[in-house]
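F.,

This is the one I mentioned.
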């Protein structure tokens, strides 16, 4: 792990894994709080690394301290929940030594019902002898190869605080220094600009990224969707539509793009077209081992709720009711959906949850 001023989260993280690993290596990049004191309760393998605005350099130094056959990496605001602790313990007993890397789900955000709403996969457990390296000063990635196993273990991201300007400042300093950005840097710089509502500059960088033709396909698809979001914020709905459709250049429709297209046609009052795209969003299943960012809402409750709206406006109230019920299955106390339920039960003459013929 690499850490800096993580006294609020580091103990929680280490408590969730300390008995699952044979060695804990912590690289501190300049903490001024109680981080090291807390870490010392779990390990004496604590190393200092002078921060040089380069996450990959720090992570590679951390990897260099490892001595065991496999390396598990985490961030200070990550935890393994009890069910995943058990899965990890089982994996250790059954792991084929020919495996070079194990991917795990990274659950990034949850709704108030505990549903995962944003997740991706990362190579989490890697064979030390392979010497895999981290690449990139910011939004770094671990370059791996060989025999990769996609596990069902999840690492849960549970952040308490975040330096929202840190990454943007790093990119802007590199831009001012005249550095040449890789396609990956162009994409992540655009993301930072979008997050900071610098929409026009974000659009320019997304176009620069896509123009390279060298981006990872999942980043290409995501960039088109984020372009659509930026154009929407600026009130350019036709360009937003064009950007959403551009995702189809790079692969089959994803639930996020389908929901964007459904929303466009819903606002145009073309409800049949909206229904087509929202229905498709509910049917798409991403392949096992999918590494791109997935927004679960776009294939679960959200399209069903929007289908409820569309069918209601088309006067097809039974279908509207059924889709609202499907949405409620994911969010059982959602006030909007409960109001919809009451509305449809009244106009359909439904009693006790049973539709009347």
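My design for it:
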């Amino acid at each position: 792990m690499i850490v800096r001023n993580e006294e609020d989260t580091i103990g929680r993280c280490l408590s969730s894994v300390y008995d699952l690993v044979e060695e804990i290596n912590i690289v501190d990049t300049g903490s001024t709080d109680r981080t090291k004191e807390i870490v010392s309760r779990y390990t004496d393998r604590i190393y200092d690394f002078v921060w040089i605005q380069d996450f990959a350099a720090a992570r590679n130094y951390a990897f260099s301290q490892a001595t065991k056959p496999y390396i598990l990496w985490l961030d200070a605001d990550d935890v393994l929940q009890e069910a995943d602790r058990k899965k990890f313990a089982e994996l250790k007993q059954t792991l084929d030594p020919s495996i070079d890397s194990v991917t795990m789900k990274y659950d990034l955000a949850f709704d108030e019902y505990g549903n995962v709403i944003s997740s991706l996969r990362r190579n989490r457990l890697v064979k030390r002898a392979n010497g895999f390296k981290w690449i990139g000063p910011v939004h770094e990635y671990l370059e791996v190869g060989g025999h990769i196993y996609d596990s069902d273990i999840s690492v849960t991201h549970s952040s308490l605080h975040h330096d929202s300007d840190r990454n943007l400042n790093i990119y802007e300093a590199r831009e001012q220094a005249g550095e040449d950005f890789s396609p990956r840097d162009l994409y992540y710089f655009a993301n930072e600009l979008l997050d900071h509502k610098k929409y026009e500059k974000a659009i320019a960088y997304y176009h620069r990224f896509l123009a390279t033709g060298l981006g990872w396909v999942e980043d290409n698809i995501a960039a088109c969707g984020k372009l659509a979001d930026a154009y929407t914020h600026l009130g350019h709905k036709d360009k937003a539509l064009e950007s959403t459709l551009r995702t189809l250049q790079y692969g089959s429709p994803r639930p996020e793009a389908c929901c964007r297209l459904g929303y466009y046609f819903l606002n145009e009052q073309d409800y049949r077209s909206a229904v087509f795209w929202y229905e498709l969003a509910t049917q798409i299943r991403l392949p096992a081992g999918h590494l791109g960012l997935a927004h679960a809402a776009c294939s679960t409750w959200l399209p069903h709720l929007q289908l409820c709206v569309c069918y209601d406006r088309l006067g097809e109230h039974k279908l509207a009711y059924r889709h609202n019920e499907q949405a409620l299955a994911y969010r059982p106390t959602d006030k909007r959906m409960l109001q919809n339920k009451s509305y449809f039960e009244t106009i359909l003459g439904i009693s006790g949850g049973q539709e009347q013929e």
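Residues 298 and 322 are 18 Å apart (CA to CA).

Talk soon.
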